[in-house]
Amino acid sequence: MPEAPKSQNLLVVLTWIIVTLPTAWGLSYTIKNALKLFHPQPAVTSPGPSASH
Amino acid sequence: MNFLDRDRSVAPTSYNRWLIPPAALAIHLSIGQVYAFSVFKNPLIQAFTGSVSAANLNKDIGYIFSIAIAVLGLSAALFGAWLERAGPRRAMFYAACCFGLGFLVASVGVRSHQLWLVYLGYGAIGGIGLGLGYISPVSTLIKWFPDRPGLATGLAIMGFGGGAMIGGPLATHLMAHFRTAADQTPSPGGPLATQLMTHFRASGGDGSAAIAHTMVVMGLLYFAFMLFGVFTIRVPNPAWKPEGYTAPTSSTGKDAGLISSHNVAVTEAWRTPQFWLLWIILFTNVTAGIGILEEASPMIQDFFHGQAGPAAAVGFVGLLSILNMAGRFFWASTSDFLGRKAIYFAFFTLGPLLFFFLPFSSSAHLNSIPLFVTGAAIIISMYGGGFATIPAYLKDLFGGFNVSAIHGRLLTAWSTAGIIGPLIVNGILDHYVSNKLPREQAYPLILHIMTGLLCAGFLANLLVRPVSEKFWIRDNHNLSKQGATR
Fold it and tell me: Does domain B250-486 correspond to CATH entry 2.40.480.10?
């Protein structure tokens, strides 16, 4: 089986960066929100929005 | 549009297969936005107040998401066989067109206060984009990664879970931006411009302009991002196989007896008991997951009165999103080593135990938030894992020939769960609320019903056996003519 050209390796890195960047942005935003779970909050008993499935 | 033909997307034998998962991820990260549709809910309610009956407004807006998910399942089932013939590039292109166009039509509906246009746009047209996009990269990935089908499909379907993490904040930021812009933009250019700006501000005072503009921007952005996937996707050359790879035989590897060396056509697959057992497996796993996801935020607040407030609940929902995404990759890729049946065995033994004991972590019993959060997080990781592992399970049982089409038909289990799950959860909650009973007393019943459902899933998984020879495709010549590579 022929070996993949070196230029393709660079293309692989680039394509992964294209999909990783928006994911990392979304993940950091979600982690910031998730951290609120570990901070003590004054209790309010009204139900909040439900999660999406 | 010859560029979209299957024949034009065959890769040279030197093509690097690691270019394929990003193409699939581009599609799934985009269509996964549907999971974040709830960020539009309150703004839409505000925008449609006055033009839709107030009594049903909440429910009417909720239908947009339900239509999208129902059409996802239907279109995946209907177009799966066509997709196998047309190839992934054409299917992904149509998915991008439908998903992008859906946003644009919905934006017109929001701006003109015509809810039916939003149903048509985001629900029906966008829903077709969801269905086509969801299944289009699956069989291609499996053909590129015959040695690691769980890893490959797990990567793509992880993107669907992660799409909400991008779509949610993106929509929130855009709506905030367009609201601010509408309030602050000066009106240079004379009296006509001033009059027009005044008119637009007045007509968009209910926030409809900001939502509509957000939808237009998102539709264009997602279309462009999905096109990246369209240009990158390739089907493997028939002569290609991974270095050192030998196809598993009936006597080698984990789950060896279940891994078929033959293919089953989609027209035959749904006649097999294995298809319906997998349907039950997916249905029970998804319905149970919805039992937590549907009420995640109020559940933690009701279980831990005085300890978990709305901010903590937002954090809890965020944590579940992360575990939903991570579980898709972790469980699906682990299934390559442990076997598909063993992974679902883990879901259906650990899952019922966690669902059964979760109510005992509440303040009325053990009063342990960490225990509750850990249990729910593991459950949601298995919910995601169930979605991501099923394509590889299908490939094991039915071969790779028609796996996207079979997967498409199996996704009707998801649509069904999307209806039944909320019906169970909301039906029980409504009963408790209407009888003036505390909401927190309803959750144990809901969770214990889910325990029972998962036990049914356990039995279905236990009954899975190799597909009978009578369903195998015998004509290998015909198979290669139709574009299957293995």
Answer: no
